[in-house]
Amino acid sequence: xxxxxxxxxxxxxxxxxxxxxxxxxxxxxxxxxxxxxxxxxxxxxxxxxxxxxxxxxxxxxxxxxxxxxxxxxxxxxxxxxxxxxxxxxxxxxxxxxxxxxxxxxxxxxxxxxxxxxxxxxxxxxxxxxxxxxxxxxxxxxxxxxxxxxxxxxxxxxxxxxxxxxxxxxxxxxxxxxxxxxxxxx
Length: 185
Fold this sequence. Notes:
It contains four helices and six strands.
């Protein structure tokens, strides 16, 4: 049985073969059970990472990458669950993969997603007293408040048509190309 056939049988759905490892979308209510299936039924004993993606109006996607190392090859899998923006919480995966603890702490700190059952969601990277979640797309960067961004973030958001081109700027001492050559009478 091929790896994709094993995934289909284990999760009862066809994984998205897309670019990279196959991806299986699961309901948030069965997140931990889906990780157990990956570890104990599919042999994905290697936990690589857990992170999130801000999908704006669609909420957040929490993604875990796990793998089943084999001699001469590796079968890997992405498990993904979608969370509503206003209720961004999912069960802690530490009971299945102990290494998920650090990743859940970082994801909680950077995206504000809660991991129910995690006993230590203390900050890892941000200074004490930092307000906000910097990897959310609605987070305002301090550098943009201090100094206006010279280019457009999105089409139509800039006050001017386009940023000045670097090609128009010549290094010091280089004459204007129109002034080169013999003068015409």
